[in-house]
Amino acid sequence: xxxxxxxxxxxxxxxxxxxxxxxxxxxxxxxxxxxxxxxxxxxxxxxxxxxxxxxxxxxxxxxxxxxxxxxxxxxxxxxxxxxxxxxxxxxxxxxxxxxxxxxxxxxxxxxxxxxxxxxxxxxxxxxxxxxxxxxxxxxxxxxxxxxxxxxxxxxxxxxxxxxxxxxxxxxxxxxxxxxxxxxxxxxxxxxxxxxxxxxxxxxxxxxxxxxxxxxxxxxxxxxxxxxxxxxxxxxxxxxxxxxxxxxxxxxxxxxxxxxxxxxxxxxxxxxxxxxxxxxxxxxxxxxxxxxxxxxxxxxxxxxxxxxxxxxxxxxxxxxxxxxxxxxxxxxxxxxxxxxxxxxxxxxxxxxxxxxxxxxxxxxxxxxxxxxxxxxxxxxxxxxxxxxxxxxxxxxxxxxxxxxxxxxxxxxxxxxxxxxxxxxxxxxxxxxxxxxxxxxxxxx
Length: 443
Known about the structure:
Strand content: under 5%
Largest sheet: none
Helix content: over 70%
Distance between the termini: 26 Å
Radius of gyration: 21 Å
Shape: globular
């Protein structure tokens, strides 16, 4: 293990930046290929607004797929880093192999289950008679490549956890680059089905690339057939720690379901389209947040496993300062240029007019969201699953979903968007302050 793979050596800040720069670029490209889908769909075809809304209805299902990839990848990677930091390379290899097997199993099960309940599920998610055909077309194709999507998302965490941020970035760029190239061709020829087909092909290639690296000679810890045999005890540990990322993604999906239901009840298809655009903007602006937290987490876990607690505190401090400063800056940008940001996705005047006020409300106090991510990253990075799981559920499940259903009674459709800043205030502060008192001050 050379110095670039040993996070207990060198400057903490340089270690974070060395991983975060390629990982942030990877997140950017990853977000771009999702956004490109929505831009093309929102501007091509005979009914672009309905197609965009149809895609928006599918987003909770895609979030659920991401949730299960996080359950395994974000559960296994921190344990992998802690064991690697403690010098137990054999156990870290077994964790990697067990995660690979679980990704396959969950991918196949999800595909079968979602196919079985596809149409009623889409109606539950907010599809109307106008948008159901488009949502159904997209989801049918997407589910065919579901397992490849999960492998690509879940296993890339183990490349980054070994210090190969550049390789992890290439993995994402391969998938995103192919998707961006195929999108205009396939969407022009097949409509919304083409967008799903481009995603499936690109993620399959990315998954194959990931497997090639993890089984090759360059990997510090390799994926082997022997390591794929699951142990019940190890699987429980992986799943328990992964519940943090899983519940965060599942509650995001539940929030999207609640939002679509309330938006249809108090608004119309137009506001479901507005929420699709807002989610797209949020994905772009939170991309550097994800890049930084994903790079800080293996460093925190490695140094925690090596008992280098001063370096753990240093990593937490740098991560928190950068994230809070960045999100304050982006809040200002979004507040000044909402119309321009919405105009990237649609030329529909109704969508633009409805979206400006909605965006101002949704992103108010955006920097408080960074505090949630800081706390979650630390709890997951040092293996404190209970706290990580609690705060995942607390902000979205206990605060956002009830507010999304209740606030529109008094504030109409804008109450749906108001739930987000309130949850950031309560949930973000609670998570960060708890992390500071129970972890940072005691290290």
